[in-house]
Amino acid sequence: MHCWLFYFVISPLALFLKTEEHFRQLKTFSVIKYAFSSTLWKSSEAGAWYFVSLPDELSKEIRTHSQWMEEGWGRLKAEASIKDVKWSTAIWFDSKKNTYLLPIKAEIRKKLNLTDGVHLDIELNL
User: Fold this and answer.
1) Distances 87 to 14, 78, 111, 115 between C-alpha atoms, Å
2) First CA to last CA across the chain, in angstroms?
3) Would you list the DSSP string of 71-103?
4) Where are the domains of the chain?
5) In this predicted model, what pLDDT tens digit does every residue of 61-110 receive, in sequence order?
6) Rounded to a whole number, what is the largest CA-CA distance in the chain?
7) For residue 74, is it left (φ>0), alpha (ψ between -120 and 50) or beta?
8) pLDDT score of 73
């Protein structure tokens, strides 16, 4: 009984935990850098979030190679920068637009004096 318990329950669990630890280390040290230009737009829904849509080709590349890292609802953790302002954020896959969206929070818009319709150069690290 003890031998069965070790080989079929404990051993696979230990392997899983080791794999998860390796995955965490991989995510910590692996950074994929992207640069793109896009226009800031305001959502028409209540609460009106501001976003930039990632270019279609870039979204397709990210979705193809990084979808396995998505958390719930197509969320990928990211670090974004516009000019000299950097912040931790996430991009979200919008299945209606078939692209990733980068939310631009009020704090960032105020620091950079950004308004709806402005064209931005953005760096994104996943």
Assistant:
1) 36, 9, 12, 18
2) 46
3) -GGGEEEEEEEETTEEEEEEEEEETTTTEEEEE
4) 1-30, 31-125
5) 988 887 777 677 778 899 999 999 999 999 999 989 999 999 999 999 99
6) 68
7) left
8) 75
Instruction: State the DSSP H helix or E strand holding residue 44, giving kind and residue range, or none if neither.
Output: none
Show the tokens assigned to 63.
């979705």
DSSP H or E run through 66: helix 56-66
SS3 assignment, position 70 = coil
Write down the number of H helices and E strands in the chain. 4, 6
Token pair, residue 20, equals 């998860």
Please identify which residue in the block is written with the tokens 């929070």.
105
What is the C-alpha to C-alpha distance for residues 115 and 112, in angstroms, rounded to an integer?
Answer: 9
Q: Please check whether residue 109 is in contact with residue 22, taking contact to mean a CB–CB distance below 8 angstroms.
A: no
pLDDT at 3 over 50: no
Q: Which of 32, 55, 21, 42 is nearest to 104 (CA)?
A: 42
CA 72 to chain centre: 11
**CATH 2.30.30.40 for domain 31-125:** no
Instruction: Record the tokens describing residue 80, joined without a space.
Output: 């974004």
